[in-house]
Amino acid sequence: MIDGMIDSTTLAMVGGVLGMVFVGEYLSLGADTGKTLKPSEKKKATTASITFTVLRALNYVALICFVWSTGFLLMNYRYLSHSEGSETEKVRVAKMTWTLSLIYFFSFFGITFVEKENIDVATESSTHSYSKPLFQAAYESFVMSCVSNLAIAHLCVNVAYDLFVLTPPLYFMRIFTGDKIFHYFTSKLIEWTVPIVVGPPAVWCGMRVWINDLEYFESAKKTGRALVLSNHGSRVDWLIGMFSGFSGTGIRVGFVCEWLVKYLPLIGWYRNFVNQDTFVNRSFESDKPRIEKRIDEFHNSNTDMMLFLAPEGACVDHNDMAKKYINDCQKFAASQGYEPFNYVLTPRYKGLTCLARHVAERGEIMSITMAFVKDGKLLDERLHSPDRVVPDLYTLFDGWGGSPLSVYVYARHLDNFNSKSPEEIKKIMMDDYKNKDELLAHFHEHGHFPGVTLDQMGEFAVNHPKVHAHILLHNLLWLATAYAAGVLPLVLRSITWIFATCMVSCVTGKYLYGSTMEAIPFETGIKALMMWMYQRKVKKGKDVSTTNTCGDSQQAY
Description:
Blueprint: H1 2-5, H2 8-30, H3 39-75, H4 77-80, H5 89-114, E1 119-121, E2 130-132, H6 134-166, H7 168-177, H8 179-204, E3 208-211, H9 214-222, E4 225-230, H10 237-246, E5 253-258, H11 267-273, E6 278-280, H12 284-300, E7 305-309, H13 320-335, H14 352-355, E8 364-374, E9 377-378, H15 393-397, E10 405-414, H16 422-446, E11 458-459, H17 464-484, H18 488-513, H19 523-539
Parallel strand pairs: 3-10, 4-7, 4-8, 5-6, 5-7
Antiparallel strand pairs: 1-2, 3-11, 8-9, 8-10
Helix pairs in contact: 2-3, 2-6, 2-18, 3-5, 6-8, 6-11, 6-18, 7-8, 8-10, 8-17, 18-19
Protein backbone atom coordinates (compact mmCIF):
# COMPACT_ATOMS: atom_id res chain seq x y z
CA MET A 1 0.00 0.00 0.00
CA ILE A 2 2.77 2.43 0.92
CA ASP A 3 4.55 1.60 -2.32
CA GLY A 4 1.46 2.60 -4.26
CA MET A 5 1.11 5.87 -2.42
CA ILE A 6 4.74 6.97 -2.04
CA ASP A 7 7.23 5.88 -4.71
CA SER A 8 10.48 4.19 -3.76
CA THR A 9 12.57 7.10 -5.06
CA THR A 10 10.86 9.45 -2.61
CA LEU A 11 11.40 6.99 0.24
CA ALA A 12 15.05 6.61 -0.71
CA MET A 13 15.59 10.35 -0.85
CA VAL A 14 13.87 10.90 2.49
CA GLY A 15 15.86 8.02 4.00
CA GLY A 16 19.04 9.69 2.82
CA VAL A 17 17.86 13.02 4.20
CA LEU A 18 17.19 11.45 7.61
CA GLY A 19 20.64 9.92 7.61
CA MET A 20 22.22 13.26 6.78
CA VAL A 21 20.08 15.00 9.40
CA PHE A 22 21.33 12.55 12.02
CA VAL A 23 24.88 13.36 10.99
CA GLY A 24 23.97 17.04 11.24
CA GLU A 25 22.57 16.56 14.75
CA TYR A 26 25.78 14.78 15.69
CA LEU A 27 27.97 17.52 14.25
CA SER A 28 25.89 20.39 15.66
CA LEU A 29 26.07 18.94 19.16
CA GLY A 30 29.74 18.07 18.87
CA ALA A 31 30.83 21.34 17.29
CA ASP A 32 31.00 23.29 20.53
CA THR A 33 31.06 20.78 23.37
CA GLY A 34 34.74 20.32 24.10
CA LYS A 35 35.78 20.47 27.75
CA THR A 36 38.67 22.50 29.14
CA LEU A 37 40.88 19.93 30.80
CA LYS A 38 42.69 20.47 34.08
CA PRO A 39 46.52 20.45 33.87
CA SER A 40 46.62 17.01 35.49
CA GLU A 41 44.35 15.66 32.77
CA LYS A 42 46.26 17.02 29.76
CA LYS A 43 48.86 14.23 29.63
CA LYS A 44 46.18 11.55 29.67
CA ALA A 45 44.21 13.38 26.97
CA THR A 46 47.29 13.69 24.75
CA THR A 47 48.05 9.96 25.05
CA ALA A 48 44.53 9.01 24.03
CA SER A 49 44.16 11.60 21.24
CA ILE A 50 45.49 9.41 18.39
CA THR A 51 43.27 6.47 19.33
CA PHE A 52 40.29 8.75 19.69
CA THR A 53 40.90 10.34 16.28
CA VAL A 54 40.95 6.92 14.59
CA LEU A 55 37.76 5.81 16.33
CA ARG A 56 36.04 9.07 15.47
CA ALA A 57 36.98 8.59 11.81
CA LEU A 58 35.39 5.12 11.96
CA ASN A 59 32.21 6.73 13.28
CA TYR A 60 31.89 8.86 10.16
CA VAL A 61 32.68 5.92 7.90
CA ALA A 62 29.89 3.93 9.58
CA LEU A 63 27.47 6.83 9.16
CA ILE A 64 28.26 7.17 5.46
CA CYS A 65 27.86 3.41 4.94
CA PHE A 66 24.53 3.45 6.77
CA VAL A 67 23.17 6.34 4.69
CA TRP A 68 24.28 4.71 1.41
CA SER A 69 22.92 1.25 2.21
CA THR A 70 19.61 2.62 3.51
CA GLY A 71 19.10 4.74 0.41
CA PHE A 72 20.08 1.91 -1.93
CA LEU A 73 17.71 -0.60 -0.30
CA LEU A 74 14.84 1.89 -0.34
CA MET A 75 15.44 2.63 -4.02
CA ASN A 76 15.18 -1.10 -4.70
CA TYR A 77 12.13 -1.52 -2.46
CA ARG A 78 9.83 -2.65 -5.29
CA TYR A 79 12.27 -5.26 -6.46
CA LEU A 80 12.87 -6.59 -2.95
CA SER A 81 9.14 -6.75 -2.16
CA HIS A 82 8.55 -9.44 -4.81
CA SER A 83 9.42 -13.04 -4.14
CA GLU A 84 10.51 -13.83 -7.68
CA GLY A 85 14.07 -13.27 -8.79
CA SER A 86 17.31 -13.65 -6.94
CA GLU A 87 19.22 -11.00 -5.11
CA THR A 88 21.93 -9.19 -7.04
CA GLU A 89 25.41 -8.84 -5.67
CA LYS A 90 24.86 -5.13 -4.98
CA VAL A 91 21.73 -5.85 -2.94
CA ARG A 92 23.56 -8.44 -0.85
CA VAL A 93 26.43 -6.00 -0.25
CA ALA A 94 23.96 -3.26 0.71
CA LYS A 95 22.18 -5.56 3.17
CA MET A 96 25.46 -6.64 4.73
CA THR A 97 26.69 -3.04 4.97
CA TRP A 98 23.42 -1.92 6.53
CA THR A 99 23.52 -4.72 9.12
CA LEU A 100 27.18 -4.13 10.03
CA SER A 101 26.52 -0.40 10.36
CA LEU A 102 23.70 -1.04 12.82
CA ILE A 103 25.85 -3.46 14.81
CA TYR A 104 28.57 -0.80 14.99
CA PHE A 105 26.09 1.87 16.07
CA PHE A 106 24.71 -0.18 18.95
CA SER A 107 28.07 -1.40 20.18
CA PHE A 108 31.24 0.57 19.44
CA PHE A 109 29.84 3.95 18.39
CA GLY A 110 28.80 5.15 21.84
CA ILE A 111 31.62 3.29 23.60
CA THR A 112 34.27 5.30 21.74
CA PHE A 113 33.22 8.34 23.77
CA VAL A 114 33.04 6.65 27.16
CA GLU A 115 36.83 6.48 27.52
CA LYS A 116 37.15 10.15 26.62
CA GLU A 117 34.91 11.13 29.54
CA ASN A 118 31.31 12.18 29.19
CA ILE A 119 30.84 15.45 27.38
CA ASP A 120 28.46 18.11 28.62
CA VAL A 121 25.91 18.65 25.91
CA ALA A 122 23.21 21.27 26.16
CA THR A 123 20.59 20.64 23.50
CA GLU A 124 18.67 23.64 22.16
CA SER A 125 15.29 22.37 23.27
CA SER A 126 16.46 21.55 26.79
CA THR A 127 16.59 24.03 29.64
CA HIS A 128 19.47 22.36 31.42
CA SER A 129 22.81 20.71 30.67
CA TYR A 130 23.31 17.02 31.09
CA SER A 131 26.27 14.72 30.84
CA LYS A 132 25.94 12.01 28.19
CA PRO A 133 27.99 10.47 25.42
CA LEU A 134 27.72 12.60 22.31
CA PHE A 135 26.11 9.86 20.23
CA GLN A 136 23.37 9.33 22.79
CA ALA A 137 22.65 13.06 22.92
CA ALA A 138 22.54 13.23 19.11
CA TYR A 139 20.22 10.20 18.99
CA GLU A 140 17.80 11.72 21.51
CA SER A 141 17.87 15.07 19.71
CA PHE A 142 17.26 13.30 16.40
CA VAL A 143 14.25 11.39 17.76
CA MET A 144 12.71 14.55 19.22
CA SER A 145 13.36 16.38 15.94
CA CYS A 146 11.52 13.62 14.09
CA VAL A 147 8.51 13.85 16.41
CA SER A 148 8.46 17.66 16.34
CA ASN A 149 8.74 17.83 12.57
CA LEU A 150 6.01 15.22 12.13
CA ALA A 151 3.78 17.51 14.22
CA ILE A 152 4.84 20.50 12.10
CA ALA A 153 4.16 18.55 8.88
CA HIS A 154 0.73 17.64 10.28
CA LEU A 155 0.10 21.33 10.98
CA CYS A 156 1.24 22.32 7.48
CA VAL A 157 -0.97 19.86 5.56
CA ASN A 158 -4.10 20.81 7.53
CA VAL A 159 -3.48 24.54 7.18
CA ALA A 160 -2.68 24.03 3.47
CA TYR A 161 -6.07 22.35 2.99
CA ASP A 162 -7.89 25.30 4.56
CA LEU A 163 -5.76 27.76 2.59
CA PHE A 164 -5.90 26.18 -0.88
CA VAL A 165 -9.30 24.46 -0.80
CA LEU A 166 -11.56 26.43 1.54
CA THR A 167 -10.20 29.97 1.12
CA PRO A 168 -10.45 30.63 -2.69
CA PRO A 169 -14.30 30.43 -2.71
CA LEU A 170 -14.36 33.11 -0.02
CA TYR A 171 -12.31 35.50 -2.15
CA PHE A 172 -14.56 34.81 -5.12
CA MET A 173 -17.60 35.52 -2.95
CA ARG A 174 -15.99 38.75 -1.71
CA ILE A 175 -16.23 40.21 -5.20
CA PHE A 176 -20.02 40.17 -4.98
CA THR A 177 -20.72 40.50 -1.24
CA GLY A 178 -18.03 42.84 0.10
CA ASP A 179 -15.98 42.75 3.29
CA LYS A 180 -18.76 42.16 5.84
CA ILE A 181 -19.70 38.69 4.58
CA PHE A 182 -16.08 37.92 3.73
CA HIS A 183 -14.89 38.71 7.26
CA TYR A 184 -17.75 36.70 8.75
CA PHE A 185 -16.77 33.57 6.84
CA THR A 186 -13.02 34.03 7.32
CA SER A 187 -13.72 34.29 11.07
CA LYS A 188 -15.61 30.99 10.87
CA LEU A 189 -12.75 29.46 8.89
CA ILE A 190 -10.27 30.64 11.54
CA GLU A 191 -12.46 29.03 14.23
CA TRP A 192 -12.20 25.80 12.19
CA THR A 193 -8.40 26.07 11.81
CA VAL A 194 -7.34 27.26 15.27
CA PRO A 195 -7.81 23.88 17.07
CA ILE A 196 -5.41 22.33 14.53
CA VAL A 197 -2.81 24.97 15.45
CA VAL A 198 -3.14 25.19 19.24
CA GLY A 199 -4.52 21.69 19.85
CA PRO A 200 -1.38 19.54 19.40
CA PRO A 201 0.83 21.64 21.74
CA ALA A 202 -1.94 21.69 24.37
CA VAL A 203 -3.45 18.19 24.19
CA TRP A 204 -0.50 16.19 22.80
CA CYS A 205 2.46 17.98 24.33
CA GLY A 206 1.11 19.24 27.65
CA MET A 207 1.38 23.01 27.15
CA ARG A 208 -0.59 24.89 29.82
CA VAL A 209 -1.26 28.62 30.19
CA TRP A 210 -2.22 30.48 33.40
CA ILE A 211 -3.13 34.12 34.02
CA ASN A 212 -3.31 36.27 37.16
CA ASP A 213 -6.84 37.59 36.42
CA LEU A 214 -8.80 35.32 34.10
CA GLU A 215 -12.06 37.17 34.76
CA TYR A 216 -10.55 40.48 33.63
CA PHE A 217 -9.12 38.91 30.47
CA GLU A 218 -12.45 37.29 29.57
CA SER A 219 -14.31 40.56 30.16
CA ALA A 220 -11.89 42.33 27.81
CA LYS A 221 -12.62 39.75 25.08
CA LYS A 222 -16.37 40.21 25.55
CA THR A 223 -16.08 43.90 24.63
CA GLY A 224 -15.39 42.72 21.06
CA ARG A 225 -12.26 44.82 20.71
CA ALA A 226 -9.03 44.55 22.64
CA LEU A 227 -5.48 45.75 22.10
CA VAL A 228 -3.04 43.39 23.83
CA LEU A 229 0.55 44.60 24.31
CA SER A 230 2.88 41.75 25.24
CA ASN A 231 6.56 41.32 25.98
CA HIS A 232 8.41 39.38 23.28
CA GLY A 233 9.99 36.56 25.28
CA SER A 234 9.43 33.76 22.78
CA ARG A 235 8.87 32.94 19.13
CA VAL A 236 5.46 31.46 19.90
CA ASP A 237 3.85 34.57 21.40
CA TRP A 238 1.43 34.45 18.46
CA LEU A 239 0.38 30.90 19.32
CA ILE A 240 -0.19 31.82 22.97
CA GLY A 241 -2.24 34.80 21.80
CA MET A 242 -4.26 32.54 19.51
CA PHE A 243 -4.71 30.04 22.35
CA SER A 244 -5.98 32.75 24.71
CA GLY A 245 -8.52 33.83 22.08
CA PHE A 246 -9.61 30.21 21.54
CA SER A 247 -10.07 29.33 25.24
CA GLY A 248 -13.17 30.54 27.05
CA THR A 249 -15.04 33.26 25.16
CA GLY A 250 -13.89 32.79 21.59
CA ILE A 251 -12.70 35.81 19.63
CA ARG A 252 -10.77 36.34 16.41
CA VAL A 253 -7.14 37.24 17.10
CA GLY A 254 -5.20 39.48 14.72
CA PHE A 255 -1.48 40.18 14.86
CA VAL A 256 0.96 42.92 13.99
CA CYS A 257 4.16 41.30 12.74
CA GLU A 258 7.18 41.78 10.50
CA TRP A 259 6.73 41.77 6.72
CA LEU A 260 8.82 38.61 6.21
CA VAL A 261 6.16 36.41 7.85
CA LYS A 262 3.61 36.73 5.05
CA TYR A 263 6.07 35.30 2.52
CA LEU A 264 6.88 32.16 4.52
CA PRO A 265 5.15 29.08 3.08
CA LEU A 266 1.73 27.90 4.27
CA ILE A 267 1.37 29.39 7.77
CA GLY A 268 2.69 32.75 6.59
CA TRP A 269 0.39 32.68 3.57
CA TYR A 270 -2.56 31.71 5.77
CA ARG A 271 -1.88 34.61 8.12
CA ASN A 272 -1.81 36.96 5.13
CA PHE A 273 -4.84 35.76 3.14
CA VAL A 274 -7.12 34.33 5.85
CA ASN A 275 -6.14 35.83 9.20
CA GLN A 276 -5.34 39.12 7.44
CA ASP A 277 -2.68 40.17 9.92
CA THR A 278 -1.02 43.57 9.70
CA PHE A 279 2.52 43.31 8.31
CA VAL A 280 4.94 46.16 8.93
CA ASN A 281 8.36 47.18 7.61
CA ARG A 282 9.32 49.13 10.75
CA SER A 283 8.96 52.42 8.90
CA PHE A 284 6.13 54.38 10.49
CA GLU A 285 5.63 56.71 7.55
CA SER A 286 4.99 53.87 5.09
CA ASP A 287 3.19 51.54 7.50
CA LYS A 288 0.74 54.01 9.04
CA PRO A 289 -1.72 54.01 6.08
CA ARG A 290 -1.57 50.21 5.92
CA ILE A 291 -2.33 49.83 9.65
CA GLU A 292 -5.20 52.30 9.57
CA LYS A 293 -6.69 50.71 6.44
CA ARG A 294 -6.66 47.23 8.02
CA ILE A 295 -8.28 48.44 11.24
CA ASP A 296 -10.96 50.37 9.33
CA GLU A 297 -11.80 47.29 7.22
CA PHE A 298 -12.64 45.28 10.33
CA HIS A 299 -14.49 48.15 11.99
CA ASN A 300 -16.59 48.83 8.89
CA SER A 301 -17.61 45.17 8.74
CA ASN A 302 -18.31 45.20 12.50
CA THR A 303 -15.94 42.24 13.06
CA ASP A 304 -14.90 41.58 16.64
CA MET A 305 -11.14 41.12 17.03
CA MET A 306 -8.42 41.06 19.66
CA LEU A 307 -5.33 42.75 18.23
CA PHE A 308 -2.16 41.21 19.65
CA LEU A 309 1.37 42.59 19.28
CA ALA A 310 4.77 42.79 20.97
CA PRO A 311 5.96 46.43 20.86
CA GLU A 312 9.58 45.34 21.35
CA GLY A 313 9.55 44.35 17.68
CA ALA A 314 12.34 41.80 18.01
CA CYS A 315 13.24 38.59 19.80
CA VAL A 316 16.91 38.24 20.79
CA ASP A 317 19.21 35.27 21.33
CA HIS A 318 22.97 35.10 21.91
CA ASN A 319 24.44 36.13 18.53
CA ASP A 320 26.41 39.30 17.84
CA MET A 321 23.45 41.05 16.23
CA ALA A 322 21.29 40.35 19.29
CA LYS A 323 23.99 41.58 21.70
CA LYS A 324 24.25 44.80 19.73
CA TYR A 325 20.46 45.23 19.78
CA ILE A 326 20.31 44.64 23.55
CA ASN A 327 23.09 47.17 24.19
CA ASP A 328 21.38 49.75 21.97
CA CYS A 329 18.08 49.28 23.82
CA GLN A 330 19.75 49.60 27.21
CA LYS A 331 21.50 52.78 26.09
CA PHE A 332 18.18 54.14 24.86
CA ALA A 333 16.52 53.37 28.21
CA ALA A 334 19.33 55.19 30.02
CA SER A 335 18.96 58.19 27.70
CA GLN A 336 15.28 58.39 28.70
CA GLY A 337 16.09 58.40 32.42
CA TYR A 338 15.42 54.72 33.13
CA GLU A 339 17.63 52.01 34.56
CA PRO A 340 18.58 49.63 31.69
CA PHE A 341 16.03 46.84 31.35
CA ASN A 342 17.46 43.37 32.02
CA TYR A 343 14.57 41.14 30.92
CA VAL A 344 12.87 43.10 28.12
CA LEU A 345 13.90 45.35 25.26
CA THR A 346 12.66 48.92 24.89
CA PRO A 347 9.28 49.24 23.12
CA ARG A 348 8.65 50.77 19.74
CA TYR A 349 5.95 53.32 20.34
CA LYS A 350 5.18 55.40 17.23
CA GLY A 351 2.89 52.82 15.60
CA LEU A 352 0.69 52.76 18.69
CA THR A 353 -0.68 56.18 17.80
CA CYS A 354 -2.70 54.55 15.02
CA LEU A 355 -3.12 51.08 16.56
CA ALA A 356 -4.97 52.67 19.48
CA ARG A 357 -7.79 53.62 17.11
CA HIS A 358 -8.83 49.95 17.26
CA VAL A 359 -10.23 50.63 20.75
CA ALA A 360 -11.09 54.31 20.30
CA GLU A 361 -14.88 53.72 20.49
CA ARG A 362 -14.96 50.66 22.76
CA GLY A 363 -12.70 47.95 24.04
CA GLU A 364 -9.75 47.49 26.34
CA ILE A 365 -6.00 48.14 26.17
CA MET A 366 -4.22 45.44 28.10
CA SER A 367 -0.57 45.01 29.02
CA ILE A 368 0.49 41.39 29.49
CA THR A 369 3.80 39.93 30.64
CA MET A 370 4.49 36.29 29.78
CA ALA A 371 6.92 34.07 31.67
CA PHE A 372 7.87 30.80 29.97
CA VAL A 373 8.81 27.96 32.31
CA LYS A 374 10.13 24.49 31.60
CA ASP A 375 11.31 21.93 34.14
CA GLY A 376 10.79 24.57 36.83
CA LYS A 377 13.18 27.03 35.19
CA LEU A 378 12.36 30.45 33.72
CA LEU A 379 13.39 30.39 30.07
CA ASP A 380 13.05 34.10 29.18
CA GLU A 381 15.40 35.26 31.91
CA ARG A 382 18.02 38.05 31.73
CA LEU A 383 18.81 39.19 28.20
CA HIS A 384 22.57 38.72 28.58
CA SER A 385 22.35 35.43 30.48
CA PRO A 386 23.91 32.42 28.69
CA ASP A 387 21.08 30.33 30.21
CA ARG A 388 18.40 32.33 28.41
CA VAL A 389 16.31 30.18 26.05
CA VAL A 390 13.86 31.62 23.51
CA PRO A 391 10.97 29.13 23.20
CA ASP A 392 9.81 28.21 19.70
CA LEU A 393 7.64 25.52 18.10
CA TYR A 394 10.24 22.85 18.83
CA THR A 395 10.17 23.83 22.52
CA LEU A 396 6.40 23.29 22.51
CA PHE A 397 6.56 19.91 20.77
CA ASP A 398 9.37 18.74 23.07
CA GLY A 399 6.60 18.37 25.64
CA TRP A 400 5.76 15.09 23.93
CA GLY A 401 8.93 13.71 25.48
CA GLY A 402 7.81 14.56 29.00
CA SER A 403 9.02 18.15 29.44
CA PRO A 404 6.01 20.39 28.67
CA LEU A 405 6.06 24.18 28.51
CA SER A 406 4.14 26.24 31.07
CA VAL A 407 3.26 29.87 30.38
CA TYR A 408 2.35 32.32 33.16
CA VAL A 409 0.68 35.58 32.13
CA TYR A 410 0.32 38.76 34.15
CA ALA A 411 -2.35 41.07 32.72
CA ARG A 412 -3.16 44.63 33.73
CA HIS A 413 -5.22 47.52 32.40
CA LEU A 414 -3.68 50.43 30.47
CA ASP A 415 -5.51 53.72 30.03
CA ASN A 416 -6.62 54.48 26.48
CA PHE A 417 -3.96 56.65 24.84
CA ASN A 418 -5.79 57.27 21.58
CA SER A 419 -5.75 61.06 22.13
CA LYS A 420 -2.22 61.20 23.54
CA SER A 421 0.75 62.78 21.80
CA PRO A 422 3.68 60.59 20.61
CA GLU A 423 5.82 61.81 23.52
CA GLU A 424 3.10 60.93 26.03
CA ILE A 425 2.67 57.49 24.48
CA LYS A 426 6.44 56.96 24.66
CA LYS A 427 6.34 57.75 28.38
CA ILE A 428 3.40 55.39 28.93
CA MET A 429 5.13 52.55 27.08
CA MET A 430 8.49 53.05 28.76
CA ASP A 431 6.77 52.99 32.17
CA ASP A 432 4.91 49.86 31.15
CA TYR A 433 8.12 48.13 30.09
CA LYS A 434 9.81 49.16 33.30
CA ASN A 435 6.93 47.38 35.04
CA LYS A 436 7.31 44.32 32.76
CA ASP A 437 11.01 44.16 33.58
CA GLU A 438 10.26 44.26 37.31
CA LEU A 439 7.57 41.57 36.97
CA LEU A 440 9.96 39.17 35.22
CA ALA A 441 12.74 39.94 37.71
CA HIS A 442 10.38 39.07 40.57
CA PHE A 443 9.27 35.87 38.81
CA HIS A 444 12.90 34.89 38.22
CA GLU A 445 13.79 35.40 41.87
CA HIS A 446 10.65 34.10 43.59
CA GLY A 447 9.08 31.74 41.04
CA HIS A 448 5.87 33.75 40.73
CA PHE A 449 4.61 37.23 39.92
CA PRO A 450 4.27 39.76 42.79
CA GLY A 451 1.00 39.55 44.69
CA VAL A 452 -0.13 36.24 43.17
CA THR A 453 1.24 32.74 43.72
CA LEU A 454 1.08 30.11 40.99
CA ASP A 455 -1.77 28.21 42.63
CA GLN A 456 -3.82 31.43 42.71
CA MET A 457 -3.62 31.92 38.94
CA GLY A 458 -6.49 30.92 36.65
CA GLU A 459 -5.87 28.47 33.82
CA PHE A 460 -7.00 28.91 30.23
CA ALA A 461 -9.16 25.80 29.91
CA VAL A 462 -9.22 23.54 26.88
CA ASN A 463 -11.69 20.74 26.19
CA HIS A 464 -9.37 17.84 25.30
CA PRO A 465 -12.02 15.42 23.90
CA LYS A 466 -13.48 18.21 21.77
CA VAL A 467 -10.07 19.20 20.40
CA HIS A 468 -9.17 15.56 19.66
CA ALA A 469 -12.46 15.11 17.81
CA HIS A 470 -11.85 18.32 15.85
CA ILE A 471 -8.33 17.23 14.84
CA LEU A 472 -9.66 13.82 13.73
CA LEU A 473 -12.48 15.39 11.71
CA HIS A 474 -10.13 17.89 10.07
CA ASN A 475 -7.75 15.13 8.98
CA LEU A 476 -10.56 12.92 7.71
CA LEU A 477 -11.87 15.82 5.63
CA TRP A 478 -8.62 16.48 3.76
CA LEU A 479 -7.99 12.75 3.32
CA ALA A 480 -11.50 12.24 1.85
CA THR A 481 -11.12 15.28 -0.41
CA ALA A 482 -7.73 14.14 -1.70
CA TYR A 483 -9.02 10.59 -2.26
CA ALA A 484 -12.12 11.82 -4.11
CA ALA A 485 -9.98 14.10 -6.29
CA GLY A 486 -7.58 11.24 -7.06
CA VAL A 487 -4.56 13.10 -5.68
CA LEU A 488 -4.02 11.25 -2.40
CA PRO A 489 -0.66 9.75 -3.48
CA LEU A 490 0.54 13.23 -4.50
CA VAL A 491 -0.58 14.69 -1.18
CA LEU A 492 1.17 11.96 0.81
CA ARG A 493 4.36 12.51 -1.16
CA SER A 494 4.06 16.25 -0.47
CA ILE A 495 3.71 15.57 3.26
CA THR A 496 6.81 13.38 3.11
CA TRP A 497 8.77 16.19 1.47
CA ILE A 498 7.43 18.77 3.93
CA PHE A 499 8.67 16.56 6.77
CA ALA A 500 12.09 16.14 5.12
CA THR A 501 12.36 19.89 4.44
CA CYS A 502 11.51 20.71 8.06
CA MET A 503 14.16 18.23 9.24
CA VAL A 504 16.80 19.84 7.03
CA SER A 505 15.73 23.35 8.07
CA CYS A 506 15.91 22.36 11.74
CA VAL A 507 19.38 20.83 11.63
CA THR A 508 20.66 23.69 9.41
CA GLY A 509 19.63 26.17 12.10
CA LYS A 510 21.25 24.11 14.84
CA TYR A 511 24.50 23.75 12.89
CA LEU A 512 24.82 27.34 11.64
CA TYR A 513 23.18 29.19 14.52
CA GLY A 514 23.33 26.84 17.51
CA SER A 515 19.57 26.63 18.04
CA THR A 516 16.23 26.52 16.26
CA MET A 517 14.18 29.68 15.53
CA GLU A 518 10.85 28.16 14.50
CA ALA A 519 8.19 30.82 15.00
CA ILE A 520 6.40 29.28 12.02
CA PRO A 521 7.45 26.33 9.82
CA PHE A 522 10.65 26.65 7.76
CA GLU A 523 11.79 29.81 9.56
CA THR A 524 14.77 28.19 11.32
CA GLY A 525 16.69 27.41 8.12
CA ILE A 526 15.83 30.74 6.48
CA LYS A 527 16.84 32.89 9.44
CA ALA A 528 19.94 30.81 10.14
CA LEU A 529 21.14 31.55 6.61
CA MET A 530 20.34 35.25 7.09
CA MET A 531 22.33 35.28 10.35
CA TRP A 532 25.20 33.47 8.66
CA MET A 533 25.25 36.09 5.90
CA TYR A 534 25.26 38.84 8.54
CA GLN A 535 28.24 37.23 10.30
CA ARG A 536 30.10 37.06 6.98
CA LYS A 537 29.53 40.79 6.49
CA VAL A 538 30.91 41.46 9.96
CA LYS A 539 34.01 39.33 9.30
CA LYS A 540 34.60 41.12 6.00
CA GLY A 541 34.50 44.46 7.81
CA LYS A 542 31.34 45.73 6.12
CA ASP A 543 29.28 48.43 7.83
CA VAL A 544 26.39 46.89 9.78
CA SER A 545 25.93 49.77 12.19
CA THR A 546 22.40 50.46 10.96
CA THR A 547 21.20 46.90 11.43
CA ASN A 548 18.67 46.34 14.22
CA THR A 549 19.58 49.47 16.14
CA CYS A 550 17.34 50.65 18.94
CA GLY A 551 17.97 54.37 18.96
CA ASP A 552 15.17 56.92 19.01
CA SER A 553 15.09 57.17 15.22
CA GLN A 554 14.33 53.46 14.99
CA GLN A 555 11.49 53.44 17.53
CA ALA A 556 8.78 52.70 14.97
CA TYR A 557 6.72 50.11 16.86
